[in-house]
Amino acid sequence: MANPPFLFLLVLLNVAADPRAGADAPDSCAGRRIHIRRIPPRFNTDLLRHCGADTFPLTDASAAATSAPPWESLANHGLGPRTHPRSRSWYRTDARLMEPFFHRRILERECLVDDPAHADAVFVPYYAALDALPYVLDPALLDASARHGAELAEFLARDQPRILSRRQGHDHFLVVSGSAWDYSQSPATDPRLWGSTSLLRLPELANFTFLTTESRMWPWQEHAIPHPTSFHPSTLPHLRAWLARARWSRRATLMLFAGGVSRPSRPNIRGSILAECANRTDACAVVDCSGGKCSHDPGMYMRAMLRSKFCLEPPGDTPTRRSTFDAILAGCVPVFFEDLAARKQYGWHLPPARYDEFSVHIPKETVVFGGVRIVEMLQSVPEAEVRRMRKRVLEMAPRVVYRRHGSTAELRAAGKDAVDLAVDGVLRRIRRRTRAQEEGRTETIYAMEDDSVEM
């Protein structure tokens, strides 16, 4: 029998867009009308069954002790169960369920239209990360991983083909949980590489805009949006109360590293950080998040972040980290060691020109091979400057928060959150490209334009 959280999410996510949305104020919706593409449930809500299946669980045995049961991750439309019965804003969020809760938020937007001919953009509510699970977890399907997304592409081309052909897909967008690297394996790779698919390489989807938590630098169709944290406020007082706590928290620790603590086999920035922290316990704290211990328990690291002035954000398997956004939320000034970690990723949410106002950059080569000591670099930052950076970090925090669905009008009116800014960015991008398409300027459709937005 399906569990209650699954049924609840299944029902609400199948709500159709109201064709009358925005009808009373057409001018306010100019350039902002979105059509939610109707696709068979096998491409979204049916995939939620993977979360409770024995064959394709979201969690593995090594993380079972510290993770919520897979089906519980579906609670609250993918935000997961609350961290505590009395918690009002904190959830055990599994980032791989970003697609369902983003879908839920899109359903709440104004200016949804039922007729795609009147839409400025088309949202495809495909749960790509869940659909990828069989390909990346079942050895029998490894050789078929190049087919990930192919059935969806075939459906979109076959069902009401005018929707796709009207602008050759340039007005379509979708959300993909995780790094773009996990979905960009060449279809020609033989033998197939374990753990990734070729979704982003499908020629049928080449003109779509993909929102991922980490993008590659060169493909024009991708754009990175913040990793989801566990904080999802539903009211303005809840948001303000947390920011006040972060603002006035006493910070006795100079710097913090939260992440895996296994020593690398060759010199790299993580190894240098761990070595320095081992020698400078008076100035550096370490939270061991090895084996996914921190994934669904924000208490493991948020308390330590609240007590720290700087949070170290070294690259791991890929450049970006969820920890960056946890640090911003905690008012812990992030320390980056390469531009790919954030500056060249999240231009819609964290304007690149402003990074020096709320973060510190220390080139990783100077630490690993140049003898630079991170503690000494951070101790040299004047306390007044640290306070200014913390203030700026907390001003940025609401922009990277994914507020809870059904949040109050007061909170929505207070400012845009991560979903709002992502959709605004998509609409700007689509407007530029469809305008270039209509004017016959095909060479500018694929231009690598600057998508950053000043605040």
TrEMBL record:
Annotated signal peptide: 1-23
Domain Exostosin GT47: 29-375
Location relative to the cell: Golgi apparatus membrane
Principal subcellular localisation of the protein: Golgi
InterPro entries named in the record: Exostosin (IPR004263), Exostosin_GT47 (IPR040911)
Listed GO MF terms: glycosyltransferase activity
UniProt-listed Pfam families: Exostosin_GT47 (PF03016)
Keywords for this protein: Glycosyltransferase, Golgi apparatus, Signal, Signal-anchor, Transferase, Transmembrane
Domain of life: Eukaryota
Membrane topology, as annotated: Single-pass type II membrane protein
Gene Ontology terms: cellular component: Golgi membrane
Family, per entry: Belongs to the glycosyltransferase 47 family.
Identification of the protein by name: Exostosin GT47 domain-containing protein
Organism the protein comes from: Digitaria exilis
